[in-house]
Specification:
- This protein is an alpha+beta fold.
- The protein is 26% helix and 27% strand.
Amino acid sequence: MLQQRVVGKLMRVSLLRLPSSLLGSIPVGTSQIVEGKEKSCFGESWRSLCCTSRIMRAKSSKSMDSSVVTVLKDKEYRDLSKPYERVLEKIKLRRDQLLRDEIQIVHPWLKPPILKDLISLGRVIDLATSTPVSMDIFHEPSEKDVWLKIICTKRPNQTDPQDIELDFLFVDEDIVCINKQPGVYTQPTGSDQTNCVMAALHFMYRDEKDECNDIVPRNVHRLDVGTSGTLVVALNKVASRRLGQQFEGKQVQKIYVAIVEGIVKEDTGTITCGLKTKTEGKLVRQIVSDDGKWSESKWRVIGRSKTHPFSLVEVKPLTGRTHQIRAHLGKIGHPLLVDALYGAREDVDGIIKRIPLHCSSMSFVHPATGKPFTVHAPLLGDMLEALEKIGIPPVLA
């Protein structure tokens, strides 16, 4: 299970970070056999420790309000690791229309194979008769206007949250910092509810049967699915609110590392422009526009390849617009490798398959201690291999 795979790393990080008064509560050891099943000693103690320390802080702190305690009973967030079921709004299928065509207009993510599965499972209901419809409605035009209700659950062939491996950088009772892998979403999306960091964390922390141990991870920011690096998640309401205020107030300093096309001549620079969202079919990108939202990024060159027309740059976004770094680097004529959306070539001779953008560090005020806090995320294997191929040392300082 996921918890067993990361327990060693959690132990190493947590023992260094937890208050000394609480360290004695953590037992030595990793796992034991309980009723024929392997169970993590650390995982159970971690839940208990988090719960106990929160209650102690809530009782002893005069400045804290009751929200510190109510977080233990919070049912506002569903368990993202469990199958998601929802009822879509009423869908009207007009005469002579095919359900598979009409549904693509209303819910593009509900692809024909998934819709067929839902019909076969009896999850497409005729509201007039309150009975499941037959497969005929998928293959043949409707003979009359029909109002339908569709009950969606976890979609076929999706990633099981317990199979998502997380690289923990820091863990305490208020926050979790992760070195996110590329190809994994931060949070559930319309097309994928389970292949995300939040589902994996909910699998580890949630315990709806025990309110005291039901820790609810909350995302306070996100990284694009193709971007790797530092991701911070709050473990209670107070931490979520305080971190959210910092992100909103632009008080969080983020540093990214990117491999770009071309040999960048200048050593440093600042990019400022307005960015406006443009939609072209299913593609959504940012374009430079005078009436767009103000954006600003600072950058500096870390290395230049002597064998390939590529450079390694460090970027500090001072605003937080969607695709800001990608759009900014494209604006100055040095788009990220393989980022065709912003002007790069898609084929770079097998150097790297994804957009080489990595959040290498993040600095903010810790929501519990009130002290400055910085977390660093080392480059992942695919970017290290890419840098080796083009002959640039992976220097992040």
